[in-house]
Fold each of these.
Amino acid sequence: MRAIHTRYRAPFRGTVAAGLLAAALIFVSGDATAQTADPGELGVRAGGGLGGASGARYFGLHWRPWQRSLMETASGWTVLAYGGVQLARVSYQGDRLYKLSAGPGLWIGHRDLPLALGLGTAPTLISGRRLGSRALGGPFQFTSHLALRWQASPGFSLTYRLQHTSNAGLHSDNDGFDIQMLEAAYAY
């Protein structure tokens, strides 16, 4: 006799995930009539996996449609908020998946220095449940990042970014993956 295995599925999980993604997309779109502190950005990212996902390859495009100054102190320290959308391809051990994420972030810097520290998080949709030996659970994930950005010129920046993607315990399979990458961005 075959054993029948059933997985517990939380009620409304898909509805909650869709609602969170819709809220993130609304947040990212911003107010078209508002004055922006800085122009938006378009850029590319490329990198590789860390830890248990070393050997993974990452290539992505990103768009930051808006950025707004939240604070500037008298001594010159600034906090800039932004909304971002990312589309990427990740490959590892012969598998590949695509990911789409949208969410907020912050740049913390000083007006007299070309460097800024960035951090953020974003709800993420992925196209597969596995990436090589990594069991990712379901299609709804979260991506968080920490970054160091160098503003090479007023319209161009280079960024080193560390990023973690996992489902935050929504599924029993939650290996997640870590990526380090370089980003080149052009302000428009």
Amino acid sequence: MRVYPVPVQLDQEEKVIGGYLTLRQLLYLILGAVIGCGTALTFNLPLITKLIIAAGGLTIGIILAFIPAEKTTLDIYLLRWIMWTVKKRKYYLGGDS
């Protein structure tokens, strides 16, 4: 039996869910819905406030799932930005040495 090498596709994530969504996008959509709707239903608030909170959670999930930033996904971009801002830096005063 012949064996053919198959190149690994490393430049982008594989669209697994119906050919439209990656697993990461699906996870962000589900987490946004669960967090937004769960928060809205947990507290005894007026209906309009619950709808605004649920829409906010869904919006955050959609933004994290579909909006790219600097040729990468937004979640990776935000993680790298947070690591860059928290990281300790060493500053040197340059002299004539």
Amino acid sequence: MATSSKRVRKPNFSEKEATKLLELVDKNIETINQTASTLRANAVKKAAWQEIAKEVSATSLVHRDEDECRKKWRDLKRAVSAYRTHCRGTGGGQPQPEPPFYEWIFKNLRDSVALEGIPVNILDTWDNSVPLILPGDITIMDVNNGK
């Protein structure tokens, strides 16, 4: 007969560990979110996650490896995304509770991902009848009429 061995679960991330994880992710956000997948870029990302895991482990009695920290970060982002999707829904059902660290994650995701996109030439979308006032007391008038 085969002996059955149960997998031993680690405890959930404590609030202290999750807070430390978010601080370290914030510090390394550009490295972690790199889209390049070259050998060098992957090595840099792996080193960043190893350093994050080392510092998170130092804050508690539980050892966390890089895969656990990476998964926790991914799960936190997914929880925020699911919450935002639920909030944009048309109703029905009970309201969903706000996920932990919602404000911090949403702010950082919005700053690093959602605002990046296709650059828009402001003069292409500008109503020529209204002067455009920029910071530093610079005013752009109707470019076509030369005013």
Amino acid sequence: MNVLRLLYEPEDEWHGQLHASAEAFGFSGRSSAWFGRDDLVEFRRHLGAYPLLPRPAAISGGVGVSPGGEPRDVHIRLTIAPFDTKGGLLVRVELACEPPVPPGADCEQRAHLCFPTDYASLDRFRIALGPMLDGGAEAILVGI
């Protein structure tokens, strides 16, 4: 099954830890990262556009900050973009975790997954993100 599952644990009214797991065509991964609630709300707002803008709806979280403002070490990156001329969408999920070895050792665990979905599934996911941000149930995006 092609699926993305998100669960948010608020730390306070501004920040929380996002847990993500994904499976695509037999491959899978999971990770977590800290996000500002406002960033997740903005991501949810972008998902409501129909059609999605040529620039993909994307969000990423991790450790540190690079000069461009992105996390230096990305633990979760989600990108959803138009895929074909028939209205299909492509979900790209990048998941990584802190290596269990000392810093400097080249032993990172990382998964890059992608799967197709449609606007109806995306809208159900977008709606589920609202209660999820209040510490509710998972938000699930199912592929086609």
